[in-house]
Amino acid sequence: MNFKSALLSLNKLEAIEIFHNFERDKLEQDFIEDIMVPILEEVGDGWKNGEVSLAQIYICGSICEEIVNIIYKPIEMTNEAKSKIAIVTLDDYHSLGKKIVYSVLRTNKIDVLDFGAALSVDEVIRLIIENNIEILIISALMYPSALRVKEFRKRLIDSNMDIKIVVGGAPFRLDDALWKSVNADAMGDAPMDTVNVIKEMRGLAL
Amino acid sequence: MMNEMTSMQRVGTALSHKEADRVPLFLLFSFYGARELNMSIEEYFQNPENIVTAQLKLKEKYSNDCLYSFFYAAVEMEAFGGKTIFHKEAPPVAGKPVINNVEDIKNLEVPDVYDSPSLKKVLTTIKMLKEQSNGDTPVISVVMSPFSLPIMQMGFEKYLDLLINDKENFELLIKKNEEFCISWANAQLDAGATFIVYFDPMSSTTIIPKDLFMTTGYEISKRIFPRINGPIVTHFASGRSYSIVDEVIDTGASGIVASFDDDFGLIKEKTKGKITLAGNLNLISMLNSSDKEIEKNIRDLIQIAASDGGFIITDAHGEIPWQVPERVLLEISENIKKWGSYPIKG
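ok -> structure tokens follow
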């Protein structure tokens, strides 16, 4: 069984075993670059065309994040956090999508702060200021939560705050014009799309 | 063109895989009723009379072929001791999970539906809808599948972890949920529901791979459907189902609601003559559609799926979003009358 098939068959033990076997012979960072990241791209494409399910994406992301955490220490939510990128859901308790995107970002060595789920616009603005955030990823499952992004953008403008907003989740997939109408800067259809958007926003320095 | 049927006749004919006077329309209005009555969503759901008033008004306004007794998914969580959070202009959602660890599964008691104030309100609503419809309109009621209910009971992440890593406690939870689901479905049928919509997004291949569905959602449906005393329509809340249609047919369901992510034509081929197909409106994408776009959407659906009956037009999500303007709903209704009368024009 190879790493991809272990992930897609939800076989965490096998996937971690394959990583440990790789680790013995090569640099563990190469596992991320040469194995995990390309597989996440393929899995993301599979998700978009209906061949891969949400549970498989979740397990893929979760296992890859676990492996990344073996290699890199996870970032913590403190004032000393270096990351200028955060992820959140607005007034929406559904956090699985956020979790998946977080895992895939971490797998791609992008540090991101997890602000949590179901925060109000006020709470998020406070956290953005406290943590000096430049890019905010907003995940939504409910359509009204997606609409909340527009209100959020207005509050940013009123406060003279210029940050990038990247959105994703079911409402944005159902209506592919929605991300523009809520004044987001970009949308990620699959987790790796969000990675590529973030990389583009931050330049090739990432 | 035949004389206009009642909604009950129209739906019954469609479910028999015959052509009625026109294609039936199911606009599944839940919290949207509060918008119709100009009240807050929380206030709306306090009194069954509000739901009944709204359902009858909306049926008349949009030539809807059903009355929908569904409140919100979290009403089942209230029976388990959970709370519901009401937002403005959004569906009510479940509050904190009632299951936080394995001990909670072991200690979980199956609620008696007749002891739950929230569920009793739904039952009262069904009785009133049946009385006031004079038997002319089907009353549709909803249950969450035992396989999908844990998404609210535990939160999605913890539930996936349980499903994948803890077979023993997963099966224990499912067993308890099955007992609840059967009793809740039968209570609603006893109160006057015409058929039950079995909400099972967890089984869709959007959420889990087919091979996992075959040992979970599929087995659960096969176990419990024979114990539910009325017709069942399986609904995946816009999740994909093409690759599991044959299995849904095998469960004995009378109908299946498709996703707009599936090829509707291919699903019609699989369902024709075997199970009624419902779908495939995406009202979120239609929010800002022009009248012409709506007309094309409806015509296309009818061309694909209406011949030989066995087809009902509905929104694939399971409830009409608050933001859908009256104009869109009226256009849908009018175009079904224009293009959906049998025999279907080419």
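Confidence is low (pLDDT under 50) at residues 76-81 of chain A.
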